[in-house]
Amino acid sequence: MRPPPEISVFLLSLLAPGVLYTMNNSPALQEPLVILGMGTVILGSVLLLLFLTVRHKAKVDPLFYVFAEFSFTCLVGLTNALEQDGFISGFMGFYIKMGEPHLSTAYALMMSYWEGVVHFILFLTIIHRMFSGKSYRSLGLLWAGSSIAHQIVHIPGVVIGKYGSNIRPAFWRNVPFFLAPFWAASLLFSRPREMQIITADKIAAEQKKSLLFRPIDLLLSLLLLGSMAFSVFRGFVVLDCSLDTCFTYIYQYEPYLKDPVGFPRVMMLVYLFYALPLLTVFIYGLKTPGCSWMLDWTIFFAGAMAQTQWCHIGASLHSRTPFTYRVPADKRLPVIALNALLAAAPALLALRCHTNPAYFMKPVPAGQSNSKKKKN
């Protein structure tokens, strides 16, 4: 009897620490170009094993190979985080020295924990639902948002930060991991959304209410406005704004924003140029009925903000961040509260959209039953 695909992927992923241990204790495999070559061979071998695992299936979603391959790298990341924090040893020394030195930074550790726990659980859940005939589109969009946000901060942060002068060949193995989430997201967005039909009467009743008579939506709009203001402010801070307020904030509240590793600066610019426009259109979506795209993009954005804020908060407090760049002890409460709120607002918005989607749906014939399904 064959094990379920998610169990096969889980067991295959457990090989990652063994591979790292072998390479860490084999000097011949520790040259920069050899590390890149071995990484390519290992990932190719994993892909082949995955193909053999599901070859008996009549039809396999191409995204299975993306999720399963990423599952393997999740445990590589978790192994790195555990070793850098002193829980284990003997796995990643060679890779930190000759592969990607930036993976020893506090930001990279928080990123690795997120991959090794949150993404890994998401992948196994998605694969289980995929082969059980259940919808996994929303979970896939949550991962896509998280993964894309991770990559657009991680890769530019390495290039422009203090590790930009020490980029080794193994760094370029990130290129396919940068492109794959965009491809996966495009596939997921293009697939039809499944949801219960809501009668036209109920949709019409919801859509007649103004924002003032929808207190939850009004509160969410205010939270999004606050998030916009905070994103603009911190964007100005990392752009060396000369206002006294910016100077006070970066030195007395979040000195991590000027950490030379580069990740916090890139993140604030991503918020300024990408998150800010999305927050704006979400406020529009809360004010304008029938914006069905809110049901997808809020999930995508919630994943992105959760990942980036987890990394940012954790890195600004972590012992691997130099003391001068950590959040001062007497300012931790307001700084953590503001950053947590910035992560919570998109999550609450996504939850609101999916628990009561009537306001965002296009009207349907009144005679249809609530128990049926439709593609929207």
From TrEMBL:
Gene Ontology biological-process annotations: lipid homeostasis; regulation of lipid metabolic process
GO cellular component annotations of the record: endoplasmic reticulum membrane; endoplasmic reticulum-Golgi intermediate compartment membrane
Cell compartments where the protein resides: Endomembrane system
Membrane spanning residue stretches: 32-51, 63-82, 102-127, 139-159, 171-190, 211-233, 266-286, 293-315, 335-353
Domain EXPERA: 60-185, 216-350
Keyword field: Membrane, Repeat, Transmembrane, Transmembrane helix
Protein name (Swiss-Prot/TrEMBL): Transmembrane 6 superfamily member 2a
Name of the gene this protein is made from: tm6sf2a
